[in-house]
């Protein structure tokens, strides 16, 4: 078995084990392989190992990497996990199956408009800046309700919430806050957990929903700069 297939098996086993420990259904955890800044051969290794769900944080880079592969692998599931500028909405709607980073009314409006034009509806999550960090994307927790109302008014369906905890704080508190906001609004899916803490994300699954763990380095090794 090559490195990539090995890493995939290791991560999957850890997920299965954690699911058992917390009495969570294995199928309620979706592993997203975060392929940003990874070399082509590693991505092909992951595809050969049978994995089909990938995450990217930049629209343009993702387009270069995935447009052609998408024609060869029709069952690919592509997730945008990085900030989305309105001038990239067209490309994002065309390429991605999921957009995890809806975070402002202007983007909501642009997405609704573009989805109508393309007749395509990627699944949308709202990103919440749970750590209230200036440099980080995402809606602040106290502004969430207004954005939620905007999505409702504009007709953008929201299936889940996503957060990236501050790197120097334990993530569990942020996961719990995100889960609380989700439950208050009847939202079922959570996009939480990365290489260092995906096992901690699993017990937070909401009944009837899924946890999407976004794992990069644990699957592919260190990223290229
Ligand atoms: C890069 C990235 C990840 C993956 O991080 P790792 O620590 O390599 O697992 C997850 N989520 C987001 C939003 C990212 O940008």
Could you give the topology of this structure?
Blueprint (H helix, E strand, L loop, with lengths): L2 H20 L6 E6 L5 H9 L4 E4 L2 H14 L4 E4 L8 H7 L2 E5 L2 H14 L4 E5 L16 H11 L3 E5 L9 H13 L4 E3 L6 H4 L9 E5 L1 H4 L5
Parallel strand pairs: 1-2, 1-8, 2-3, 3-4, 4-5, 5-6, 6-7, 7-8
Bound molecules: pyridoxal-5'-phosphate (PLP).
Pyridoxal-5'-phosphate binds next to strand 8 and helix 9.
What are its keywords?
8 strands; binds pyridoxal-5'-phosphate; globular; 9 helices
Radius of gyration, rounded?
A: 17 Å
Given the helix and strand composition, which structural class is it? alpha/beta
Strand order of the largest sheet: 1-2-3-4-5-6-7-8
| First and last CA, distance | 27 Å
Order of helices and strands: HEHEHEHEHEHEHEHEH
The biggest beta sheet is recorded as: 8 strands, parallel, barrel
Stretches where pLDDT is under 50 for at least 5 consecutive residues are none
The helix content is 40-55%
What percent strand? Answer: 15-25%
Q: How many individual helices?
A: 9
What does this structure look like?
The chain is α/β, with parallel strands linked by helices and 225 residues long. Helices cover 43% and strands 16% of the residues. It has nine helices and eight strands. It has an eight-stranded parallel barrel, surrounded by four helices. Helix 4 packs across helix 5 and helix 5 (105-118) runs parallel beside helix 6 (144-154). The protein is globular, with a radius of gyration of 17 Å. The mean pLDDT is 97. Bound molecules: pyridoxal-5'-phosphate (PLP). Residues 34, 36, 57, 81-82, 164, 194-195, 214-218 line the site of pyridoxal-5'-phosphate.
């Amino acid at each position: 078995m090559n490195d990539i297939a090995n890493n995939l098996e290791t991560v999957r086993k850890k997920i299965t084990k954690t699911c058992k420990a917390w009495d969570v259904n294995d199928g309620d955890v979706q592993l997203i392989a975060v392929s940003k800044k990874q070399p082509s051969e590693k991505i092909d290794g992951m595809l050969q190992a049978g994995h089909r769900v990938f995450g990217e944080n930049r629209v343009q880079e993702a387009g270069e990497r995935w447009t052609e592969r998408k024609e060869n692998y029709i069952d690919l599931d592509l997730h945008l996990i990085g900030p989305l500028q309105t001038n990239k909405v067209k490309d994002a709607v065309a390429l991605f199956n999921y957009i995890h980073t809806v975070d402002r009314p202007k983007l909501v409006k642009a997405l609704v408009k573009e989805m109508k034009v393309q007749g395509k509806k990627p699944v949308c999550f709202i990103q919440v800046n749970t750590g209230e960090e200036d440099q980080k994307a995402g809606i602040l927790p106290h502004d969430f309700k207004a954005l939620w109302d905007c999505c409702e008014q504009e007709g953008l369906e929201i299936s889940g919430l996503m957060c990236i905890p501050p790197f120097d704080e334990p993530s569990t508190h942020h996961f719990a806050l995100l889960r609380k906001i989700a439950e208050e609004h009847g939202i079922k899916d959570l996009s939480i957990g990365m290489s260092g803490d995906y096992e901690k994300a699993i017990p937070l699954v909401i009944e009837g929903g899924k946890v999407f763990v976004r794992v990069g380095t644990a699957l592919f090794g260190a990223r290229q700069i």
